[in-house]
Amino acid sequence: xxxxxxxxxxxxxxxxxxxxxxxxxxxxxxxxxxxxxxxxxxxxxxxxxxxxxxxxxxxxxxxxxxxxxxxxxxxxxxxxxxxxxxxxxxxxxxxxxxxxxxxxxxxxxxxxxxxxxxxxxxxxxxxxxxxxxxxxxxxxxxxxxxxxxxxxxxxxxxxxxxxxxxxxxxxxxxxxxxxxxxxxxxxxxxxxxxxxxxxxxxxxxxxxxxxxxxxxxxxxxxxxxxxxxxxxxxxxxxxxxxxxxxxxxxxxxxxxxxxxxxxxxxxxxxxxxxxxxxxxxxxxxxxxxxxxxxxxxxxxx
Length: 301
Prior knowledge:
Radius of gyration: 50 Å
Number of helices: 2
Strand content: 15-25%
Largest sheet: 10 strands, antiparallel
Shape: rod-shaped
């Protein structure tokens, strides 16, 4: 973005220099025109003086003070007028040619000014767009920073929850292969499935359910967390003892609270879309010592 703004400023400087150069050339032509007009006036005046001097020296009667009008005088006057007309026409043609050239240069200048105006408008628009894009990028970066902080905060919060476990109800391991799913529905995502283009994977099961489907505790235990958590929605976490915990997220509503003792198959929540889900359901995880593990071998069948 910085390089683009620098290029735009350099283009501005080049265009302004080009415009000043053309205006300077036109100024020279205008000055030349004034000089030629001055020379023409001097020439006419000089010819007139010479003609009058010749007339008085050769055709003036010194006694009477009158001029002799004869063929020679007539020829002189005619020749003098013809010379004046010739010089006048010649200078007139020169001035007309210069005027024509000047008009062409003026047209070129007007065209250039129009082009410069359009170019400057385009440059200003591009500058405005670049500044807006830079501002948008800064906003996105700011949002991403906030999201990152929220993610790290949630991660730390969950890690603290899973680390504060007890050794109660250690029968969970013995229930392997005997447990029911936490809700009726379709398993749309399984543990280990790819989540997105960056190759992150699901660390639990995503159940797609009907609206307001009941969600059950897969095994007895103690509720250690029941609240809203960004990215998970309404979530309940149950400690089953022996370092095992289960997580139930994206619920519409929770039916338990922190510290509640729950039994196997007890209705603990209602499935939903909280936490940013697009379809109704519940997200389930099984964790051992705080780390997600594949729950497949704990379920029946």
